[in-house]
Task: inverse folding
């Protein structure tokens, strides 16, 4: 028995009980026992996929479009602490709110033990967002001019809306790749055929959705929180080298095993290294190199952690996260794998890119650690590139596109019968999604 793993699970369970209570904890256990892969009870496939039939009940009168309101209902998965996906959603929500849009959060979950008030206070505490309304998917939801799905599961709820609303999709990754070929892969892929207008994290996603599915999408770039991420002074370390490694073993696309193999090879070449691991608790693993286990850190702690390192290994086998930009803003060189889903943001001037093999990535890290004449311009270019980005620019881009959609004709949708007489204010303007892809400002 792996006592470290058992102790970690017990610690997490006790922490959840202290923060959310026994009711929430047993609710989670119940859902896991009833999942389609449960080892404890008879698997309930229909229950596991119940979200496919969630059909929001929209309050009457359903007049948000007729009244030309700037209202948005965001359909989001249950909130998790440290979720970068939720952070991005709330970041854009905050910016749109500052520009006069009314945002509502619809949690796509019908059996949570948490009250709406508790969820709202959690959003305020974890994501510093206030002035929002919160609803569960099984409650009566106000009419909205736009309804935005934020994951493939929530896309089914938006698809099932029988109301006058523009349906959009905030896509942060190519989610079918989260799964092996099978049911979830197929169901996730189908959501790109629902006819929603997409807002994607980066240009690679908008291109792939358009090329494979004919989906119109607006690409939104990345930036970082300037108040949090900046270089911090660190103590001299002599010849010792520190490498930051983002670890998340349950998330296959972050290539944890590949990273460990790369660092093991690097340790053979550069013996005096310490690998700083953050993102997940991995004390129960055995590593053939010196480790510093940082675990899950609060955002305000990360900049000092990044700054204390000589290089960062950030792997991604699907779309990039915000991590490379945040690390570069702290003056640390990034080593990543070369691929079309990383190179829409990274290039050889601002990052050390290598093929996703053990030897190539280990060699890239070795060059960064041992070649200051190469590393210094890389750091300077990366820092300048990060500084040139801005969330406000991306938020404005989304707001402008939303305004164009809301001012355009209502999209054809077999679930909603809307005549021109019902929505007279939407007769003018170009069709939603008529702009060519790839024309958005480069980041």
Result:
């Amino acid at each position: 028995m792996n006592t470290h793993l058992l102790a970690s699970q017990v610690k997490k369970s006790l922490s959840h009980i202290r923060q959310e209570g026994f009711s929430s904890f047993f609710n989670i256990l119940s859902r896991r026992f009833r999942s389609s892969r449960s080892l404890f009870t008879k698997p309930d496939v229909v229950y596991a996929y119940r979200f496919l039939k969630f059909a929001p009940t929209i309050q009457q009168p359903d007049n948000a479009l007729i009244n030309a309101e700037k209202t948005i209902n965001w359909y989001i998965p249950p909130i998790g602490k440290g979720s970068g996906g939720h952070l991005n959603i709330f970041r854009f929500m905050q910016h749109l709110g500052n520009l006069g849009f009314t945002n509502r959060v619809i949690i796509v979950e019908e059996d949570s033990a948490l009250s709406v008030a508790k969820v709202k206070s959690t959003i305020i505490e974890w994501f510093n967002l206030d002035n929002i309304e919160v609803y569960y998917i099984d409650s009566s939801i106000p009419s909205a001019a736009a309804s935005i799905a934020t994951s493939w599961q929530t896309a089914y709820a938006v698809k099932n809306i029988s109301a006058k609303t523009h349906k959009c999709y905030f896509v942060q990754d190519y989610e079918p790749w989260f799964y092996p070929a099978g049911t979830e892969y197929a169901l996730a892929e189908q959501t790109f055929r629902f006819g929603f207008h997409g807002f994607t994290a980066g240009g690679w996603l908008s291109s792939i959705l358009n090329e494979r599915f004919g989906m119109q999408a607006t690409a939104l770039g990345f930036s970082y929180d300037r108040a949090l991420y900046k270089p911090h002074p660190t103590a001299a370390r002599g010849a010792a080298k520190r490498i930051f490694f983002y670890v998340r073993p349950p998330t296959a696309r972050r290539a944890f095993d590949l990273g460990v193999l790369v660092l093991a090879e690097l340790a053979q070449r550069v013996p005096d290294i310490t690998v700083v691991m953050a993102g997940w608790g991995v004390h129960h693993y055995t590593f053939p190199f010196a480790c510093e286990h940082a675990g899950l850190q609060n955002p305000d702690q990360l900049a000092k952690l990044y700054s204390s390192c000589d290089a960062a290994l950030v792997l991604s086998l699907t779309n990039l996260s915000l991590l490379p930009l945040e690390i570069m803003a702290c003056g640390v060189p990034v080593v990543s794998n070369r691929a079309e889903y990383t190179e829409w943001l990274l290039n050889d001037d601002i990052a050390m890119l290598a093929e996703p093999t053990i030897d190539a990535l280990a060699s890239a890290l070795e060059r960064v650690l041992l070649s200051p004449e190469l590393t210094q311009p890389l750091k300077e270019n990366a820092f300048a590139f990060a500084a040139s980005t801005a969330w406000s620019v991306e938020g404005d881009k989304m707001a402008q596109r939303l305004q164009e959609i809301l001012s355009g004709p209502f999209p054809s949708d077999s679930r909603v019968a809307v005549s021109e007489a019902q929505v007279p204010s939407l007769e003018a303007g170009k069709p939603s999604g008529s702009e060519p892809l790839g024309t958005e400002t480069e980041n």
Notes: The longest strand covers residues 71-76. The mean pLDDT is 85.
